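User: Some background: our group keeps a shared notebook of sequences we're curious about, and every so often someone picks one and asks for a predicted structure to add to the entry. Today it's my turn. The entry only has the sequence so far, pasted here. Could you supply the structure so I can complete it?
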Amino acid sequence: MGTRWSWRAIVVFIWWCAITSTTQAIWLDLPTSGTKCVSEEIQNHVVVLADYSLINGQEDAHMPSGATISVRVTSPYGNNLHHKENMTHGQFAFTTNESGNYLACFWVDGHHQGTKGLTVSLDWRIGIAAKDWESVAKKEKIDGVEFELRKLEGAVEAIHENLIYLKNREAEMREVSEKTNARVAWFSILSLGVCIAVSVLQLWYLKRFFHKKKLI
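Assistant: Of course. Here's the predicted structure to add to the notebook entry:
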């Protein structure tokens, strides 16, 4: 009995970790002028799906008639993945081919700039959270326990891939840190050498100067 409950707890924990780490539902209060952005660090070959909609962030105010927003999504290297104007709601989806920070920016369209209280609701799903499990169940003809195990398998794979990505990132950061420390050490040695050389030249110059003045 205790073992069965332990396994259930493990399953729930793994599934919760996978979902909470790959799903973000947020509200962005848009400035009257300018841009509001949100970024997410995502590894390579990951499915990203997001829905966004314009809502009224102030309960005591009315949504301005015809208010629209523009949205732009860019990759870590600045590639344009999604760009729409005059929108009240929309969706973007893509599979990453670069590792790094993906940026989604929203702003009020020009003819409505100055309008207060506009908010964007953004439902950002990554990896396993973006997968259409109902379609998978129909295609593979699975249900019940088998379906839950299939989702659990996907969650474990997502966590494993994320751990590998974090490990690689740690190795990259450690390599950068080691190179930086080595450069700092060489710079310190070079600075010390320059100081010694300057001191020697100063002593030589002063000695020569005093000899000419017959002070020593």
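Suggested note for the entry: The first helix runs from residue 2 to 22. The beta strands are 23-29, 36-42, 47-56, 69-74, 80-87, 89-95, 100-108, 118-126.
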